[in-house]
């Protein structure tokens, strides 16, 4: 058991102070009415910056609701707040304006406009530095891809070891593979939608047509499997050895309980059954369908499907770790290939963030599904639909994990792929016991607002 804290830092952290993402609730203080002197026009050039404390000042500059010395056309009083409350925080400069001898910048913090402050209290920084600082601040051991503008090259994040014993660092270039977990559901759902498009299935097709032995199968539809509202619950346990797809489907049916109740309730078994249906409808294995319909089409060359055969990978498998007050890289644990083989359609894929990023883009750019089909796939349910959560306006996301390990996966994608975040972790918990799902959301905030 390793107790030595040793982290590979790949990003820039603030020299002092804490970097905490979130919306501030600090209220400005009313101090005076607006002056009416300068008429200088604003410069709308935008950039990212970090709030700093000038050496000649004991605290930061004031943040004003209106530019000091510039006519306030709204007639509202000018209010202020001390910028020291945001020392070392990252902001987005929306525009600048000069008043007399001073230039002020209008700053936005995670989506909230704070006001105007002296540009001398700001240090321009890159998007990559903000994303990397977030990864290291929360001790996110893993790797990922973060894109804040689909027309720009995405930023690759990596931190810590994939295998500490062999000094192998986390990477997203194909040299290290990670278990995808429930993020695979989106792939399975996309294939189901392709079959619906070709009229080989319908959303109202019932489970009884393929697995009549499941209780209440006549009342369970493809749509309910896609939205986790089938009434099926249960957990598939790891078998003693690798199993075939057919054996996995049999084991899933043995493990499930069918309640005939239909609120949202997550269970991997829904998507294992969908994988089985794909095989029955096409006359080909789920693996063959996944390879031809998704992996080959998108050029996902570093993605491997685990079934009854020991997977052959050119890179290495990441190792799972735990962290505690005693340090990082504790309780090392290898991936269970038997468990992965028991989850076709719902967790039997090994891949990289870079490869999965291709899939996330492909879902919306027409390479996997036409736009109307993608829209349909994400509208079957109001909470979860087609392998992703759809309960936040303008964004789709999902989180995956292997219970009892440090492996966690997550992604966010805005409608149109303007902002995309894909993160794979191989250690948990994060700093201050931050939940992985919360961490993924924080990086999505960075991608959205910086």
UniProtKB/TrEMBL annotation:
Pfam families: Beta-lactamase, GW. Keywords: Membrane, Signal. It is found in: Membrane. Residues 1-20 form the signal peptide. Residues 38-127 form the GW domain. InterPro entries: AmpC-like, Beta-lactam-related, Beta-lactam/transpept-like, GW_dom, GW_dom_sf. GO terms for cellular component: membrane. This is Beta-lactamase. It comes from Lentilactobacillus parakefiri.
């Amino acid at each position: 058991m390793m107790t030595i804290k040793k982290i590979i830092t790949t990003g820039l952290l603030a020299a002092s102070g804490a970097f905490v993402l979130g919306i501030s609730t600090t209220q400005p203080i009313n101090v005076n009415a607006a002056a009416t002197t300068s008429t200088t026009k604003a410069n709308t050039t935008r950039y990212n910056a970090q709030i700093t404390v000038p050496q000649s000042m004991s605290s930061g500059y004031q943040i004003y609701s209106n530019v000091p010395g510039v006519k306030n056309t709204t007639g509202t009083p000018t209010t202020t707040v001390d910028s020291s409350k945001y020392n070392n925080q990252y902001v987005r400069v929306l525009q600048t304006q000069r008043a007399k001898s001073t230039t002020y910048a209008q700053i936005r913090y995670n989506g909230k406009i704070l006001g105007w402050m002296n540009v001398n209290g700001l240090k321009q920084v890159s998007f990559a530095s903000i994303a990397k600082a977030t990864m290291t601040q929360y001790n996110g051991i893993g790797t990922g891809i973060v894109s804040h503008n689909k027309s720009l090259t995405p930023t690759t994040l990596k931190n810590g070891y994939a295998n500490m014993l062999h000094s192998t660092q986390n990477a997203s270039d194909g040299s290290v593979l990670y278990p995808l977990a429930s993020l695979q559901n989106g792939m399975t759902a996309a294939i189901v939608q392709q079959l619906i498009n070709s009229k080989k299935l319908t959303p109202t097709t019932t489970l009884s047509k393929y697995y009549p032995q499941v209780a209440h199968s006549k009342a369970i539809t493809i749509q309910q499997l896609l939205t986790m509202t089938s009434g099926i619950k249960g957990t598939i346990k790891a078998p003693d050895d690798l199993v075939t797809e057919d054996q996995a489907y049999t084991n899933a049916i043995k493990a499930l309980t069918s309640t005939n109740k239909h609120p949202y309730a997550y269970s991997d078994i829904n998507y294992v059954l969908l994988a089985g249906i794909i095989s029955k409808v096409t006359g080909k294995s789920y693996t063959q369908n996944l390879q031809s319909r998704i992996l080959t089409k998108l050029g996902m060359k570093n993605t491997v499907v685990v079934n009854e055969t020991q997977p052959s990978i050119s890179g290495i498998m990441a190792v799972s770790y735990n962290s505690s007050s005693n340090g990082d890289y504790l309780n090392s644990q290898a991936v269970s290939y038997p468990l992965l083989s028991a989850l076709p359609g719902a967790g039997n894929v090994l891949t990289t963030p870079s490869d999965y990023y291709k899939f996330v883009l492909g879902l919306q750019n027409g390479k996997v599904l036409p736009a109307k089909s993608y829209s349909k796939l994400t509208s079957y349910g109001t909470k979860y639909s087609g392998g992703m959560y759809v309960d936040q306006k303008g964004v789709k996301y999902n989180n995956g994990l292997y219970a009892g390990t440090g492996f966690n996966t997550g992604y966010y994608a805005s409608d149109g792929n303007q902002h995309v975040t894909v993160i794979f972790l191989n250690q948990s918990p994060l700093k201050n016991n931050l939940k992985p799902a919360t961490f993924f959301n924080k990086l999505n905030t960075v991608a959205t607002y910086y």
